[in-house]
C-alpha cells in the first residue's frame, strides 16, 4: 500500500499541480483546501496519513502553523513539511523546530519529493 500524503493548500492550481505530481510518484494523496479541512481529514481516522504538506498562509481560523501544532499535539508520529512564499514566514518556521522543516515557494517538485522520501524513510 502506498504511503499517504495530505496536502493542505488553499491555492487550487498549486494544490492540483503538486497533488498530481505526488500521485505520479506513487503516493496516495488527499487534498484539503484549508487547515480546518485538513484537521477534519485527520480526525476522521479513515485513512492513516504518513505526512502532511501544508502552506503556512491559509484562510480561516487554522493556518499552516496552527495545523502543524495540532498535529504535534494529537498525532505526533505524522511528519510535516510546511511551505511558504513569504521569506519572513519561512525564516520564522525554520526557527520553530517543533513545526518541522520549511520548503520555500516556488519549490521544485523533484526536490520536494526527495525531501518527502527522506522524511518518510526515517519513520
Provide the descriptors you would attach to this structure in a database record.
alpha/beta; Rossmann fold; globular
Summarize the structure.
46% of the residues lie in helices and 20% in strands.
List the SSEs and their pairings:
Layout: E1 4-8, H1 12-24, E2 28-32, H2 35-44, E3 51-55, H3 64-74, E4 79-84, H4 87-95, E5 102-104, H5 109-121
Parallel strand pairs: 1-2, 1-3, 3-4, 4-5
Helix pairs in contact: 2-3
Account of the protein in words:
- With 123 residues, the protein is an alpha/beta fold.
- It contains five helices and five strands; from the N terminus they run βαβαβαβαβα.
- Strands 2-1-3-4-5 form a five-stranded parallel beta sheet, with helices on both faces.
- α2 (35-44) runs parallel beside α3 (64-74).
- Residues 95-99 have low confidence and may be disordered.
The assigned structural class equals alpha/beta
Number of domains: 1
Oligomer: single chain
Q: How would you write the strand order of the largest sheet?
A: 2-1-3-4-5
